[in-house]
Design goal:
Shape: globular
Low-confidence stretches: 1-35
CATH class of one domain: Alpha Beta
Structural class: alpha+beta
Mean pLDDT: 93
CATH topology of one domain: Rossmann fold
Number of strands: 42
Radius of gyration: 27 Å
Helix content: 10-25%
CATH superfamily of one domain: Alpha/Beta hydrolase fold, catalytic domain
CATH architecture of one domain: 3-Layer(aba) Sandwich
Strand content: 25-35%
Number of helices: 14
Length: 743
């Protein structure tokens, strides 16, 4: 996501001279090679290679799958000694063995497909309904591999399990049918490939299958019918021919109509498709699953402003709806974009008794687990304390236990570890002693769990842990040997105070591979600051902003990544700091952090500070240049958003425009165009349907009217994340030109 700067006369030659005088060599090039070639290009290439450093790690990233019985699971291995094949692990016996050696797997696939096969790094798979074979797809064809006979068999394209491997399709509980997403329509297809039910949609009214579409007994299939007819449309212009073509894309801007979704139920035996009408209020709706006996479907409805969340139960036979409970906040939000983008899936978890469910709430100031019955009565709060629970990751089928991922350790507010709790109540018991970010997958019995975990300093390892306290054993670990060529080292952790002088903030600093503490380095703040995600790395491979920061640091900068107040993952009060006032608290926190970090690090040159971000980060890069113009000397804003753009991104954190006009006005970058002092560059793709091109056009217009010089890169046909490295190199050249080299 980076472009090159304009080729101004004399610019590159001066840069080359400066680089040669600096004596900067690239690790994989000899000094003679660097001098003989283009030293600037060599630096850009090394920065690009550093951006791609996670690709050099071999890790077993395909999610492991537990067999229904026997405390055994299968994983796709990318590391020795079982590289590029499936491995069967027995958690009780603490053993593992490949189902098939890699050479045999490739040989059989080559014979069945008729040409040599290259095995991919990630190989999604599932099991047949009898759990006697696994099923996977490669080069557009599906195959089964017997767990006992090790036989590889090609499957018919219409086989339900084969179809279920395609994104959007959902297999029935008995494996005998599959609900298939077909463009704007859907079908329910049986084992013979015959469509029992089929519906077609339109671009403005498509059908959409939820992940938990099938009722537990397979009698009903839930499906959404979306209505986009009243939505605003973004114009996407194709400039590739002299006769321009315009495509109109539905997009809900702040204050404009939302997409409306109506739930329908398919009765599989009869083929009937009947609606379950909801109310007329605008909301964001999710299908959250079923009661275990299939008597009711569960739907979550978040109000447009994010202040109210309802759990609704729907009878699939009659379409009758009833509200089970309502979670509401009058002065802030219940759910924002982090909830919309996936957090909703953790909101409600039915218990096996069919009478109760677990519910997540921040009502006491921290995200915790509560026990309810289906009448909507609160039974008790199950977890409590000054820490957040992020997810319920398992519920014991025959006991009183449930399992969560939480940040419950003192002094480690962002670690995510596994804990066991009891429905009867009481303190959580920690099951993962190691620090860092854990990724648990519990067995069906919940007696064991796969635990993939890493820290900022330690690459990921994969353990099999017991939930009753027995010692774990390691079955795989990531191979990072290919990073040596890049001289990769983890970033330095920093802890600072926010602009309020009280709240602790956490971040990291990245340094060049050839860092010299006697030099003075220009500094770049790589910012995102969106109020719905964190960007500081706590695992070995962190969020993309941290990867960008590492890449830019290799050019000769000190770069910072920080999670300021207003971001999630801690207390509700921590995130609510910028509620209704996005854009007013974040930059002061970042400036305070940089000043504190530099106070004990004389190699950080705060006379040469830049700021860079993309999307929300683009908005905040602009924000830094306009609200702290004396501090930030150069800023590059990629695909910047605005508070008037997509409704779901803005309204839950800002309130509705009609209710908070002052907050929206205070967060406007356009209104501050006359404050610009330093060097500014904007980038936007003309086909961006996330942050529309109009945000950059309006900002450019405001800067022109304020008579403020700036640079602008328009990338025809590119979306929100431009492909290739043109944009990436442009960012690199911009900061090399504007901030210079270490001194």
């Amino acid at each position: 996501m980076t472009p090159p700067l304009p080729h101004r006369d004399g610019l590159l030659s001066r840069a080359r001279i400066a680089l040669l005088l600096a004596g900067l060599a690239i690790p994989w090039m000899t000094a003679a090679g660097a001098e003989a070639g283009d030293p600037l290009q060599a630096r850009l290439d090394f920065s690009q290679a550093s951006l791609r450093w996670p690709d050099r790690i071999r890790d077993t990233l395909t999610p492991p799958r537990w067999l229904p019985e026997g405390e055994r699971f299968v994983y796709w291995s990318r590391v020795e000694p079982y590289r590029e094949t499936w491995v069967l692990v027995d958690a009780q016996r603490r053993t593992q063995q490949p189902l098939l050696d890699a050479e045999s797997l490739r040989s059989q696939l080559t014979q069945l497909i008729g040409k040599p096969v290259t095995l991919p790094p990630v190989m999604p798979f599932t099991f047949t309904s009898d759990a006697k074979a696994l099923v996977f797809a490669i080069q557009g064809r599906a195959f089964s591999l017997g767990l006992t006979d090790k036989r590889l068999v090609a499957l018919e394209p219409t086989h339900p399990v084969a179809l279920s491997l395609m994104p959007g399709n959902v297999l029935s509980p008995d494996g005998g049918a599959v609900a298939v997403q077909r463009d704007t329509g859907f079908a329910v297809v049986d084992a013979k490939g015959t469509a029992r039910v089929e519906r077609t949609g339109t671009e403005d009214a498509p059908w959409r299958l939820p992940e938990a579409a099938w009722s537990p007994q397979g009698r009903f299939v839930a499906v959404w019918r979306d209505d986009m007819q009243g939505m605003h449309r973004l114009p996407l212009v194709d400039y590739s021919t002299p006769v321009e073509k315009v495509t109109w894309v539905p997009y809900s801007k702040t204050g404009t109509p939302l997409m409306r979704s109506e739930l329908h139920f398919v009765t599989v035996d009869t083929g009937q498709v009947a609606p379950a009408p909801g109310d007329a209020a605008e909301s964001y709706d999710w299908f959250a699953g079923w009661r275990p006996d299939g008597s009711e479907a569960l739907v979550l409805q978040l109000s447009r402003d994010g202040k109210r969340l309802d759990l609704v139960a729907v009878d699939p036979g009659t379409g009758k709806r009833r509200r089970v409970l309502r979670e509401e906040r009058k002065d802030t939000f219940v759910g924002a974009l982090d909830f919309v983008a996936g957090g909703w899936a953790q909101q409600v978890k039915p218990l096996p008794d069919n009478q109760h469910f677990l519910w997540m709430s921040e009502r006491d100031g921290w995200r915790h687990v509560y026990l309810y019955d289906y009448s909507g009565k609160l039974v008790r709060q199950l977890t409590r304390g000054a820490f957040p629970v992020h997810a319920v990751v398992g519920i014991a089928p025959k006991s009183d236990a449930f399992f969560v991922l939480a940040s419950a350790e003192s002094g480690a507010p962002y670690d995510r570890r596994v804990y066991r709790g009891l429905i009867a109540g009481g303190a959580l018991k920690r099951l993962s002693p190691e620090r860092g970010m854990h990724r648990p997958v519990l067995s069906p019995s919940t007696r064991h769990f796969v635990d993939g975990h890493s820290t900022r300093e330690q690459p990921r390892v994969w353990d099999v842990a017991s939930t009753d306290g027995r010692p774990s054993f390691r079955y795989a670990k990531a191979d990072t040997s290919a990073l040596a060529e890049l001289h990769y080292t983890p970033p330095e952790a920093i802890t600072v105070k926010a602009a309020d002088g009280v709240t602790s903030l956490y971040g990291v600093l990245y340094k060049p591979w050839n860092f010299d503490p006697k030099k003075r380095y220009p500094v770049i703040d790589v910012i995102y600051a969106g109020p719905f995600t964190t960007v500081v790395p706590w695992s070995y491979v962190g969020p993309y902003e941290s990867v960008i920061a590492h890449s830019l640091a290799q050019l000769g900068f000190i770069t910072m990544v920080l999670d300021a107040r207003g971001t999630p993952g801690r207390s509700k009060a921590f995130q609510d700091v910028n509620y209704g006032r996005v854009g007013q608290t974040e930059i002061p926190d970042h400036v305070a952090a940089l000043k504190q970090a530099a106070a004990s690090r004389p190699y950080m040159d705060l006379e040469r500070v830049g700021i860079h971000g993309h999307s929300w980060g683009g908005y905040f890069a602009l924000r830094g240049m306009l609200t702290a113009p004396e501090f930030f000397k150069a800023g590059y804003a990629g695909a910047p958003g605005a508070l008037t753009e997509e409704a779901v991104i803005n309204e839950p954190n800002m309130g509705l425009l009609s209710d908070n006009p002052e907050g929206y006005a205070a967060g406007s970058n356009e209104a501050l165009a006359d404050k610009l002092q330093g060097a500014l560059k904007l980038m936007h793709g003309t086909s961006d349907v996330n942050a529309s091109l109009s945000t950059t056009m309006r900002m450019a217009q405001a800067l022109v009217r304020a008579n403020k010089p700036f640079d602008l890169l328009i990338m025809p046909g590119e979306g929100h994340g431009p492909e290739g490295r043109y944009y990436q190199d442009d960012v690199r050249r911009f900061f090399l030109r504007e901030l210079g080299d270490p001194r």
